[in-house]
Design a protein that fits this description.
The complex is a heterodimer. Chain A contains eleven helices and 14 strands. By secondary structure, chain A is of the alpha+beta class. Chain A folds into three domains: about 45 residues; about 120 residues, Uridine Diphospho-n-acetylenolpyruvylglucosamine Reductase, domain 3 (2-Layer Sandwich), CATH 3.30.465.10; about 110 residues, 2-Layer Sandwich (Enolase-like, domain 1), CATH 3.30.390. In chain A, the strands form four sheets. A five-stranded antiparallel β-sheet of chain A has the order 4-5-10-6-7, with helices on one face. In chain A, strands 11-12-13-14 form a four-stranded antiparallel β-sheet, with helices on both faces. In chain A, strands 1-3-2 form a three-stranded parallel β-sheet, with helices on one face. In chain A, helix 5 packs antiparallel against helix 8 and helix 10 packs across helix 11. Chain A starts with a strand and ends in a 5-residue tail after the last helix. By secondary structure, chain B is α+β, with helices and mostly antiparallel strands. In chain B, about 25% of the residues lie in helices and about 25% in strands. Chain B contains 19 helices and 33 strands. Chain B has a seven-stranded mixed β-sheet, with helices on both faces. A six-stranded mixed β-sheet of chain B has the order 9-19-18-17-10-33. Chain B has a four-stranded mixed β-sheet with strand order 22-30-31-32, with helices on both faces. In chain B, helix 9 runs parallel beside helix 18. Chain B starts with about 25 loop residues before the first helix and ends with a helix. Classes of the chains: A alpha+beta, B alpha+beta. The interface between A and B is medium-sized, with 20 and 24 residues.
Amino acid sequence: MRDFEYESPTTLPEALAILATGPGCRPLAGGTDLIDHVRVGRLAPDVLVDVKKLPELNILEAGPKGLRIGAATPCFRIVAHEAIQRDYAALADSAHIIGGIQIQNRATFGGNVCTSGPAADSIPSLIALSAACVIAGPQGTRRVPIEQFCTGPGKNVLQPGELLVEFELPAPGPHSGSHYRRFIPRNEMDIAVVGVGAAVTLDAGGQTITAARIALGAVAPTPLLAEQAAQAVIGQPVGESTFQAAGRAAREIISPITDMRGTAEFRTHVTGVLVERVLQAAVSRARGGRS
Amino acid sequence: MPELPVAWKPQAENVVFGKEVSRIDGVDKATGFAKYSADINTPGTLHGKLLQSPYAHARIKAIDVEAARKVPGVKAVYVFPDRAPRTNEETGEPIYFEIEHEGQPIAAVAAETSGQADDGLRAIKVVYEPLEFFVDEFHLPRAVELGRARPIRAAQQGDLEGAFKAAAHTITGMYGIQTISHMCLEPHGSHCEFTDGDHLTAHLSTQNVSGTPGQFASPLGLDAAKVHVSCDYMGGGFGSKFAADEWDIACAAMARDAQRPVKLMLDRATELNIPGSRPSAFAEITVAADADGKLVAWDSHHWGTSGPQGGTVAPTVMPYVFEPKNRRTRATGIVTNRGPDRAWRAPNHPQACALTQTAIDDLAAAIGVDPYDLFLKNLDLTWSATSRNPADKDIYAAELEIAAKLMDWKAKWHPRGEAGDGPVKTGLGLALHTWGGAAGRGTCTVAIHPDGTVETFSGTQDLGTGTRTALAVILAESFGLPYEKIKVHIGSSKYPMSGPSGGSTTIGGVSGPHRRAALKALGRIYDLVAAKHSVDAGTLTAANEQILSAGKPVCTWAEACSLLGPMKVEFQGEGPANDGLTSAQVGGVQMAEVAVDVETGVTKVVRYVAVQDIGTIVCREQAKSQVLGAMIMTIAYALSEERIMDNATGRFVNADLQHYKLPRIGDIGELIVEFYEPESQYKKGVIGLGEPPVISGGAAISNAVANAVGQRIPVLPLTPKRILDSLRS
């Protein structure tokens, strides 16, 4: 493992100043991906800038305007957060299955997003729940919709010197529910072969889907917002044939690869199955079910 | 008095023998006090690392290690034997070493830090001439075409053609099981240190403490007597750790060169790749039964690879346990550029069982009968592992009955494919197995001190199976002492020789000698007590830390031992012996209940029952743990675990714990272990248990999946992809 310097700033300007010193600086949040990448030689940073002590990156607030999640918020805080469990349940689903308990105590949503793996478990949930990424940098602060954040496997829109600060999520309306589920061949602690996040809003009677966002992970170079799949259910009655239509639409837009974790054909099939099941669960939550 | 008769105590009199006891080293292991080879860090220990071939097949045209020697921190560089080009002395032609698989070691470096060792490896220049490689284990015609197939080995008996012609039911199918690695939790490797100039102490992770000093000595040009192998604790071997491996020799050689201790443990990727694998096996099988469901004919051709040696599963274990009178077996080994095989827990048996008893299950489905009834009906065709004679079919019948009760088989079983509506289908499957488990060689010295302290010295090893605890229990039961008070010394080649731990030979190999030594000691003590207290030695027994005469206390154990004189007295035990303490031949039945999601292909083991006969039980808890471990290993190879070789690069692409899919806790389901133990089993003597419970579960789980989804998924592991591919084709 290559040696690196370690910085631990306590204010955002201080952190940005260090990051501005050169491309060899890399933010360190939980480190559960980054340190492993350094260990195996995939990355060779000169300086790791620990961002866990920055207050802005540790915000976790839910209010009438929505939800703010600091980028360095570890998964366990998201799992345990009551408002998230109630109103943004897909996020809790994601946080609950990223690694084991020790990993969840350390790993952060910001880190998961910035690693920008196509199979990242946090991203489809954030897409489904319309998250915006707040990015600070030498040129000031900008906001990027989460579905535009990743640009390729391991790549994203962050420019040199920029730092992901937090996620902003709008408050879901009444009769809304969300869910994230992934397909893994084992029961737990595995990498998604396919991941699906969905958020739905129903009419007051709970019978018709009035709004929906569906996101797909591990089936394209970046996590996808599946607008066609959402269009297939918006305005439609809740039911198996509606969910199946979304599943079919989702299968149309993906471009999965074949690797040792699954063939393109297998991933395409499972994407449809998962979209149906995730929609069913999201609808059930929108109707008041907590599971 | 005459010598005490050699036997275990009557079963009813046992206090700790055969009972549930905690491991004497459990706390040490759980708290980290127990030291494994990787934990040995004597002052000045250097980091040893390997340079390995990136090619599956290549010639080494040149090696230059001089730059590596100059890297800061590098203290020793080692080139493996024959790797460097040589010249044929007679012809003057160059001789180039041929790499046979990816990861084959070429050179090693020892340095002050891990990073410096990496720097040293990077400085080594190797010129390779890549050669054609072949890692396809499955496509036999391709192997034949490329000259990679060994000649067929065939055996035939009876009137095959006539039997098939007369049969009422015949099925033909394709079956298979992929290659897996041993995946020892503790990787292979050692810490080597020279003291007094030329005395080597090697902390080696090994199944063979007594047998490895000579393996170090010879290549290093040392006297075997100057090598001490130590292995206090080790984290699994499964048949892959019998040798001082070439990287251990490298470690020792670098320790000698550097005059510093060196530790070289394989990293996980290397551990998965080079120190052993279980060969794959695939087969085309035709099997037939008469109108009553009696097996009458068998014809199989199996193939697979053990790697560069080109071996395959031994044809002698095909068909597995059930042997129709008319039969033909053929076997073809394939030469591949894949990491070599080593004995894997019950060599050949799990594969043979997975090929055979799935085909028989398919025959039952074709006839339309419950496989339980078909297996039961054909028990007179079973052979035993220790001879080609029929197995004790009554034991199998009894075990089938016990397993069926634990599984609630008769209530739950449904005809194949009739698992109801909904995407999640449940199903049941069963299979059975055989194993020898005779005692290995072993000696021990049991020392009794005048203060009553008891200790034993034996050059055996505890692979994690509980050997240390078993020795304490045997001596404690013999002397009537608490087992925690017995001092057990194992894991050193300085102790009396004991055989390698393989083939389920250890428990018999150590328990016989210890009981024999204990009985010698008891005879001596009884004589002294009889003389001192004027009682008949023939009436004496040892219990509750006392010596009793006809049940009445005569003196304490410590008082009795003080009669031995001022010095400790040692008693030697040897084995194996034909005196009834140990024997061989066990069998077992396993049943699985699975739930398969036919939309995603995910299979869950709901309940998994293992019924096993094992002769005399020494440590019940540890015996149960052996079976549980085997069941977990079985779930792994049945559902998710496999080596994935890349035909395009010749590489083992999933050699890490992220992609080499071992089950998680949530994949295991409910495990039920039941020993078949009527009185006759206790009288049978001690028999090894390491291998048998890992054999038949693969077939049982495959059969359960077939029962659930309505068709055979031919090749293990039954991954979601294989299941969906089969269901959708």
